[in-house]
């Protein structure tokens, strides 16, 4: 399959850069958006990610990959990080990182799970939990570009308190339809009872296969495998289903 070109030369994208924290926004009890200034940032495409490296005073270092949440905006970059109970990096980024702190990152990484303004077909975004992050970058790029491409977002979370970007998604934008699927607890006015994503949710809130949409699915491994399988079962061409997963 053809791969989408990514900005910047490969060597430049693999170079570690020092980024400074310029802002942070609380998204939920377990997630924050970290705003970074990254000198000489080469730019990125919606859906790409970066590697983040932390180094302790004793020289021990560790790194993790995090999706980019923002649309391209010069040297400004946003990462939304959700704290994992047994995580080594995410608790530090969520709970301890403050304005003025620095961290190392490299990227952007990835060329398949991306959306570009040249694409004209309808788009279906299927997110599980923090899998919304790279899809939010696509939504924001569409908004900034003034694109008329119709987007539909099916966003699965445990409870209303776990929602990311709630104010921004509530505000919405022309041509973007958003549906929330709550798996554990619903708000009082929810039209659907709590439960996991099912094929009928994608029939009701997605696109018909004959519209030939490009489908982007992101979230925990189990969620992504089921959602992608549902889409193919419903008649979507496998080549039009792009998946990005995290976790075991």
TrEMBL record:
Q: Which PROSITE patterns has this protein been placed in? A: FAD_FR
Q: Where, if anywhere, are coiled coils annotated?
A: none
Q: Which residues cross the membrane?
A: none
Q: Which UniProt keywords apply?
A: 2Fe-2S, Iron, Iron-sulfur, Metal-binding
InterPro entries linked: Cbr1-like_FAD-bd_dom (IPR008333), FAD-bd_FR_type (IPR017927), Flavoprot_Pyr_Nucl_cyt_Rdtase (IPR001709), FNR_nucleotide-bd (IPR039261), MRET (IPR050415), OxRdtase_FAD/NAD-bd (IPR001433), Riboflavin_synthase-like_b-brl (IPR017938)
Residue ranges, annotated region (Disordered)? 176-196
State its cofactor: FAD
Signal peptide range equals: none
Domain FAD-binding FR-type: start-end pairs = 14-115
Q: Sorted alphabetically, which Pfam families does this protein's record hold?
A: FAD_binding_6, NAD_binding_1
Top-level taxon: Bacteria
PANTHER family noted in UniProt = NADH OXIDOREDUCTASE HCR, PROTEIN RFBI
Q: Which protein is depicted?
A: Ferredoxin reductase
**Taxonomically, what lineage is the organism?**
Bacteria, Bacillati, Actinomycetota, Actinomycetes, Kitasatosporales
């Amino acid at each position: 399959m053809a791969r989408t070109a990514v900005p910047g030369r490969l060597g430049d994208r693999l170079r570690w850069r020092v980024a400074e924290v310029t802002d942070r926004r609380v998204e939920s009890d377990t997630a924050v958006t970290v705003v970074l200034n990254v000198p000489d940032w080469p730019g990125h495409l919606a859906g790409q990610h970066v590697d983040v490296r932390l180094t302790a005073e004793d020289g021990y270092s560790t790194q993790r990959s995090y999706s980019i949440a923002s649309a391209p905006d010069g040297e400004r970059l946003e990462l939304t990080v959700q704290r994992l109970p047994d995580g080594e990096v995410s608790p530090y980024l969520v709970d301890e990182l403050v304005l003025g702190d620095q961290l190392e990152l490299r990227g952007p990484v990835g060329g398949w799970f991306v959306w570009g303004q040249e694409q004209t077909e309808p788009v279906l975004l299927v997110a599980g939990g923090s899998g919304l992050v790279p899809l939010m970058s696509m939504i924001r790029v569409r908004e900034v570009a003034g694109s008329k491409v119709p987007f539909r977002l099916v966003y699965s979370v445990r409870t209303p308190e776990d929602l990311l970007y709630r104010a921004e998604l509530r505000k919405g934008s022309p041509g973007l339809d958003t549906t929330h699927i709550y798996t554990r607890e619903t708000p009082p006015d929810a039209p659907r009872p709590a439960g996991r994503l099912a094929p009928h949710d994608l029939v009701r809130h997605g696109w018909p296969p004959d519209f030939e949409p490009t489908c982007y699915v992101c979230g925990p491994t189990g969620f992504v495998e089921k959602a992608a399988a549902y889409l193919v079962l419903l008649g979507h061409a496998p080549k039009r289903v792009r998946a990005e997963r995290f976790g075991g």
